[in-house]
Write a structure and sequence with these properties.
Two copies of one chain form a homodimer. By secondary structure, chain A is mainly α. Chain A has helices spanning about 5-25, 30-40, 45-50, 55-75, 80-100, 100-110, 115-140, 150-170, 170-175, 180-195, 200-215. Chain A folds into two domains: about 1-50, Arc Repressor Mutant, subunit A (Orthogonal Bundle), CATH 1.10.10; about 55-215, Tetracycline Repressor, domain 2, CATH 1.10.357.10. Helices cover about 80% and strands about 0% of the residues of chain A.
């Protein structure tokens, strides 16, 4: 193994170990010392790759944003199909859940990490919010959804809030804290939310997909 | 002024100063030293009233929960009226915005404040989520809303997620960070969300109220 490969392997291990610790114990209480101890490496080795915890978080945010962009691209390439839409919803919910420490506390990190604040606001506003709005306009063109422009705009905003709240507010959604259930229940929740806007043409496949999600074992 | 009154006045001033600082600069970066300096009192005086920052936060959470319970009671006492419903929505959004540091970062505080985690989960689950669900069932009995039990249950959950997301995710909702606009735009957003479930009987006053919110100056 070359020095470069060795470096990149440890770099990736640090990022993955940090993601696990942040998700499980809360980013706020985890220090670079915890991460190094958990990985059984020296803090010197960790600092060779990352100068601070904030740099690790920024790398995790970069991966989170990359994954979200992939979900949006996958959604943009769909032909009009309810099952296709649900497959992308599942992919997106799984991705949000994988990076849940970001969803759960990101505004609390901004005062100590201005780079994160800027990256996150730009990404969420320009890519995610605009991307989902365009996507919903396209679903209307494909005659899957119905509504005037204002309704479609609100639908896109509310969809994002519910998708995101589903991951971070189990106290409201009362869903089990487990990957598979989160994803399935989250999809059911999003489909119920979209239901009044589904066009008559897509009503039958929509109801079939919803019923199949409700029949799956917990 | 008696010693007791003096104590309670400083106690309240600490709580209010902390709320301002937490909302403006982020709870995470504010210490008891910052609070004492901001108030021009000694840290000894502050520690006479609160042994830690967590105790101040728990007192703020108690006030937040009391205000939310008042909003729920006000909603429960309404006769079926769209304007009455909007008045309670405005009151609730104003209250959530006043305690926005809690909305924005509460899960990130749980690992350092177990009492907060228990109080918050119990309160949100048993009082808020159940309270809003009962409220929506009552609005159906009053023939303001329409839907089967499952639809009304999802409506209540999604309503809470949107109401809450509106305060914490300006990056999605793209609304100005100012009390009055937040409240008015948040109400418009919630009314658009409820719109497909409003019964024909209440459609005319509903549209009138929505139009009046859109006409108000920014």
């Amino acid at each position: 193994m070359s020095a470069k490969e060795g470096r990149s392997q440890t770099f990736n291990r640090i990022v993955e170990a940090s993601l696990n610790l942040f998700n499980q114990q809360g980013e706020r209480v985890i220090t670079t010392n915890h991460i190094a101890r958990y990985m059984n490496i020296s803090t010197g080795n960790l600092y060779y790759h990352f100068r601070s915890k904030e740099e690790i978080i920024n790398e995790l945010h970069r991966r989170y944003a990359k994954g979200m962009a992939e979900c949006l691209n996958a959604a943009g390439e769909l032909s009009a199909s309810i099952d296709g839409m649900v497959a992308v919803m599942e992919k997106t919910l799984r991705h949000l859940w994988q990076f849940r420490f970001l969803q759960q506390g990101i505004p609390s990190m901004f005062p100590v990490n201005k780079a994160l604040e800027e990256n996150h606001r730009d990404f969420t506003h320009f890519q995610v919010a605009n991307g989902v709005q365009k996507l919903f306009m396209r679903l209307r063109e494909q005659e899957m959804l119905e509504g005037d422009d204002e309704q479609i705009n609100f639908l896109a905003k509310h969809f994002l809030l519910i998708q995101w709240g589903w991951i971070v507010r189990p106290d409201i959604t009362d869903c089990p804290q487990e990957d598979r259930s989160i994803v399935r229940e989250g999809c059911r929740s999003l489909l119920h939310f979209l239901s009044p806007y589904v066009s008559p043409r897509f009503r039958a496949p929509f109801q079939r997909t919803l019923a199949s999600l409700e029949l799956q074992p917990a």
